[in-house]
Amino acid sequence: MTGAYLFGYDLIVVQGKGRISYHDRELLRKAVRQLVGLEIVEEDSRSLLVQFLLEPTTLEPEKILRRMHIIARGMYADAITALLERDKNLVRMIVQRDEEVDRFYFLLVRLIRSALLDSSLASKYHLGPIDCLDYRVASNVLETVGDYSVEFAKNAQKMSVVKGTDEVGSQLRIISESLQKCQDLAVRAFLTRNAKDARDVVTLYREITQTARDLEKALVEKLPSDVSVALATGASIDKIARCQVDIADLVAPVYPIIR
């Protein structure tokens, strides 16, 4: 069903060899809920007819990408807050928001594929073939940021208590602010094709990775029993920051600068 959705089919028929079990039907309903614009319009004991009900011309890839950016940016900020405040409920909400990022990602991939096949739709979106490819890559990177944010949040729950007022807490807050600023710059650079903003992402990336290394050392010193978790936390921060460099690299070749 997901494959048919991504390929741009408006009508999807799910046909069972026999009666579709309650368990399988619930799995199908869950799959439908994960795909924006998809609804079950007909159903009997052996089949389901699913239809995409949104009009592609009313949707804008740029707005969907911005929405993904805003959700993903909030996820790692909240993951750091969850670590400082030991808030398990906040971790659960981060996981739920990752599912929301995935939903927008699938919708954007569908629209981009449709635009590549329909020149009038591509013209409406003001996207050429290279633009479509870049949007596909950028959306994938933001979806990955969501995954890394969940990874960070889950690792944080394994760590011993971290006080928000000490050196570690201060470093975490600096990293949170810097990551958000870096992603804002990267997405702005992508949407405006601004090479200067893209290069500024590299400067921030260097600052973030240095602070992340300092954080790792501080965590290892304060929490010697949590060394593996501390290293995993630092790695998650670096992976999120590198994703932001990936977005900037779509505008200007910045990777040679950071190597």
CATH architecture of the largest domain: Up-down Bundle
Assess the beta-strand content as a share of residues.
Answer: 5-15%
Annotated CATH topology of the largest domain: Methane Monooxygenase Hydroxylase, Chain G, domain 1
What's the tally of helices? 10
Q: What is the CA-atom radius of gyration, in angstroms?
A: 21 Å
Q: What is the CATH homology-level superfamily of the largest domain?
A: Phosphate transport system protein phou homolog 2, domain 2
C-alpha geometry = flat
Largest sheet entry: 3 strands, antiparallel
* CATH class descriptor of the largest domain: Mainly Alpha
Helix and strand layout, with pairings?
Blueprint: H1 2-6, E1 11-15, H2 22-33, E2 38-43, E3 47-52, H3 61-85, H4 88-117, H5 119-125, H6 129-158, H7 167-192, H8 195-222, H9 227-249, H10 255-258
Antiparallel strand pairs: 1-3, 2-3
Helix pairs in contact: 3-4, 3-6, 3-7, 4-5, 4-6, 6-9, 7-8, 7-9, 8-9
